[in-house]
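Whiteboard transcription, Tuesday session. T.W. wrote the structure tokens on the left side:
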């Protein structure tokens, strides 16, 4: 007897269906390669393109960051690919304007959650320094910074998509995807460190192409390597606009230091929201039901 399959689109779980039906949905474009699927025997939900039985069909599927309006996977409203943008393209001005509008609309929640994340991040680094000064940054990044940043992105994305979001979402990384986040942080930490040793630029380049790894893991429930590969492919489609986007976000963040050294508490949310909007435009919404 063949296994029954389930798949998720938007915030709805569908199924059970047969393997042949899932393949048919992929082939016709009704199911995106980035949409999540599950069958009995799988440890967790996974993107269709990462499942062996579906890989051949989903390989020809259009990338999730370029789903045409009206197609399954594009029902996320704010997450739809923006009209007039080519695949992989990002409009820095649009991201900044929308980030500013959301920040001003819900200043209290956005500011306080972001500030809490930063304080907890620094506290984690302080504790890591006491445990192992030589490995403090590596430990803090894997156990504290990456899961908290995932939670912050989760909070932002829910706000962007008009969903209810609160302080508990900041800790969603520990609850929903801690293991893949931990592994991704460890692998990225080692490879970026090696890249920085070799004239710095290779390490910075790796940071750029893997910038969407964390939100992909928490939002799409991808495993660490599919998330890293998906981020790399998306950024490499149009690397220079993404480079300018991240440089702009970093510049806004650092500008906060000019305000008595603590202004970054106010500029950080704007910087992070720019990245969250860029991510949402590229990958849309396909969060797991009940998350």
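and on the right, the sequence the group agreed on:
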């Amino acid at each position: 007897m063949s296994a029954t399959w389930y798949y998720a689109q938007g915030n709805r779980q569908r199924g059970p269906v047969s393997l042949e039906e899932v393949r048919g949905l992929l082939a016709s474009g009704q199911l995106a390669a980035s949409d999540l699927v599950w069958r009995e025997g799988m440890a967790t939900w996974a993107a269709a393109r990462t499942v062996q039985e579906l890989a051949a069909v989903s390989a020809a599927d259009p990338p999730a960051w370029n789903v045409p309006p009206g197609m399954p996977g594009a029902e996320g409203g704010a997450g739809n690919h923006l009209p007039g943008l080519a695949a992989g393209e990002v409009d820095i001005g649009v991201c900044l304007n929308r980030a500013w509008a959301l920040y001003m609309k819900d200043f209290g929640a956005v500011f306080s959650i972001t500030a809490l994340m930063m304080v907890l991040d620094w506290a984690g680094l302080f504790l890591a320094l006491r445990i192992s000064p030589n490995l403090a940054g590596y430990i803090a990044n894997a156990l504290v910074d990456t899961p908290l940043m995932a939670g912050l992105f989760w909070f932002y994305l829910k706000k962007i998509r008009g969903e209810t979001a609160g302080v508990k979402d900041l800790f969603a990384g520990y609850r929903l995807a801690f293991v893949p986040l931990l592994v991704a942080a460890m692998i990225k930490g080692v490879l970026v460190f090696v890249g920085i040793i070799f004239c710095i630029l290779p390490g910075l380049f790796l940071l750029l192409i893997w910038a969407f790894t964390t939100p992909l893991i928490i939002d799409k429930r991808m495993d660490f390597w599919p998330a890293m590969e998906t981020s790399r492919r998306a950024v490499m489609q149009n690397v220079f606009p993404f480079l300018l986007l991240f440089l702009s976000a970093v510049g806004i963040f650092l500008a906060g230091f000019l305000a008595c050294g603590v202004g970054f508490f106010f500029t950080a949310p704007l910087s992070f929201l720019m990245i969250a909007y860029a991510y949402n435009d590229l990958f849309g919404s396909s969060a797991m039901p009940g998350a």
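Someone added at the bottom: The chain has two domains: 5-61, 92-283.
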